[in-house]
Amino acid sequence: MSAPMTPAEWRAALKAEGVPFTEYSGWTSRGRDAATGKAFGPVHGVLNHHTAGSNSLAAVAVDGAPALPAPLAHTFLPKSGVAVLVSCHRANHAGLAALNSYTAILNETAIPRPSKASGTVDGNDALYGIEVENLGNGTDRYTRAQYDTWVRWNAALCRHHGWGAGSCAGHLETSVEGKVDPLGPVEGYGKRGPFTFTMKQLRADVAERLAHPASWSPEQASTPQEITVEGPSYVNLGLEHSYQLAPGSWDEIGFTEEWSDELGQHPVAGDVFVVGPARFTGSLSLRFEGLGVGEVVQVRMSEWEGATLKALHPIHEVIGTPGGTYSVLPLVKRLGAGRSMRVRLLNQGAGGIEVASAVLTALVWKES
Ligand SMILES: [Zn+2]
Q: How far is the CA of 23 from the centre of ligand 1 (A)?
């Protein structure tokens, strides 16, 4: 049933939805089907990407990336907002998709965090892909024209196949290879001013289009839309399990749990909690078990460039108290470009202690 759209169906669906587009030479025959021996389709959804570069048309259409032959999507969407059709066949854009998130896209249910353990599928078999021009550095903006076309393009494909907005996903929602795209601020849309891109918002905007005829324009929205100001990202990290901290050597806290309203809103998880250039302010709540009364654990931020330790920040001392030790420490810093920040602990007590919990909460303002 869900056969990939033919060139004629592409043109008709995009035209009806008001998508401005051009056709890159050879787009109706270009694809990876013959080279891989795997035909594109049946199709089950739409995957959205940012290019993490500029002027990527040739790369997406014909040049490809290292070890990744083109086409790298079906459509390239530059800042101008005029989409370029580069393929209607198999394209190299999705990589391995986690089965749990892929299944959710098929069923149009809430997309869970992609789990490699759930199994994987080749997303290029069944997902349309669009590469949207953006540096992906958190400050480069999607233009108004670009975002409007982006919404229309997703809606056109969904309308053609009879899908809802739940069939639209972001690469970060399916990838088991650590992809974070698409991300970035948006200049505006319809009656809305600047806001931060999220898949949740894109799906809401696609759903709104689909609730109207294809000729609808977002300026016609009768109800005021939610205005999201371009603001800080919220970072909230913790530990899934407590761990033991031996005495005498510095150890970075490896966060294993992340609270999120929407995937991909946080700069990074793991032991790095922020990447520069950025300013951040927040706190770290710590609870230790087994730290002797009056014994000390030192806590300090450690600043890195890649794998090289570049700076250590002032030491906070946490002093053991009876019945477990609890402390809240401030985290404030302006972090330069290319630097990353971790928090390290030094157990100065006589024996091993348990780090029972470590909860980091911060607001991060990315800088250009
Ligand atoms: Zn991608």
A: 22
Instruction: Note the pLDDT tens digit of each residue in 81-90.
Output: 999 999 999 9
CA of 171 to the centre of ligand 1 (A): 5
For ligand 1, the distance from its centroid to the CA atom of residue 73, given in whole angstroms, is 9
> 139 CA to middle of ligand 1, Å?
18
3-state DSSP call for residue 3?
Answer: coil
CA dihedral 50, 55, 56, 59 (to 10 degrees): -170
**Which neighbouring-strand residues pair with 366?**
278
**CA 124 to centroid of ligand 1, rounded, Å:** 12
Average pLDDT over residues 117-130: 96
Buried b (16+ CB within 10 A) or exposed e, 2-15: eebbeeebbeebbe
- Residue 78 tokens read as 């530059």
- Provide the sign of the torsion angle of the four alpha carbons 132, 137, 142, 147, taken in this order: positive
Cα 93 to ligand 1 centre (Å)? 6
30-49 residue pLDDT tens:
999 999 999 999 999 999 99
Residue 151 Ramachandran class (φ > 0 left, ψ -120 to 50 alpha, else beta): alpha
Q: What does the block give as tokens for 131? A: 């590469």
Q: Structural domains in the chain?
A: 7-220 (3.40.80.10), 233-366 (2.60.120.40)
* CA distance linking residue 285 with residue 300, whole number of Å: 13
Task: Please name the amino acid found at residue 39.
Answer: A
How many beta carbons lie within 10 A of that of residue 316, not counting itself? 16
> Do the Cβ atoms of 205 and 149 come closer than 8 Å?
no
185 in Cβ contact with 195 (< 8 Å): yes
